[in-house]
Design a protein that fits this description.
Belongs to the BlaI transcriptional regulatory family. By secondary structure, the chain is mainly alpha-helical. Helices cover 58% and strands 11% of the residues. α2 crosses α3.
Length: 129
């Protein structure tokens, strides 16, 4: 699945919904964004509707307001962006090597642990278990 990077306001909305881990109204989102910068209610309402149509947010009516909730996690979004970037490479091995060379020691250890877990979790591939 090809994933386009979220726009600035899309990312601000998703950041809040991901952080809160619960359904949120446009009013809650607007009020929180307005602590940092001014944004119109109708602008956030429009962008939340766009995110809903794109499949990033689900929504359910609560009284007169829509309550929005994330459909996919921040980690799924980030992983899809990484996969897209890797897919654009002509030499995946070289791209991965350059990526790992720039990682912190802690991130390399986390990647190594994730690779071990992925190998163990794959049934019937002859690796692990």
């Amino acid at each position: 699945m090809r994933v386009r990077r979220l726009g600035e306001l899309e990312a601000e909305i998703m950041d809040r919904v991901w952080q809160w881990e619960r359904p949120a109204s446009v009013r809650e989102i607007v009020d929180d964004i307005n602590r940092v910068r001014k944004v119109a209610y109708t602008t956030v309402m429009t962008v939340a509707d766009i995110l809903h149509r794109k499949g990033w947010l689900s929504r359910e009516k609560s009284g007169r307001a829509w309550m929005y909730e994330a459909v996919r996690s921040r980690e799924e979004y980030t992983a899809a962006l990484m996969q897209d970037a890797l897919g654009d490479s002509q030499d995946r091995r070289a791209t991965l090597l350059r990526f790992v060379e720039r990682m912190s020691h802690e991130d390399v250890e986390a990647l190594d642990e994730a690779l071990r877990a992925a190998r163990t979790d794959r049934p019937g591939d002859g690796r692990g278990r």
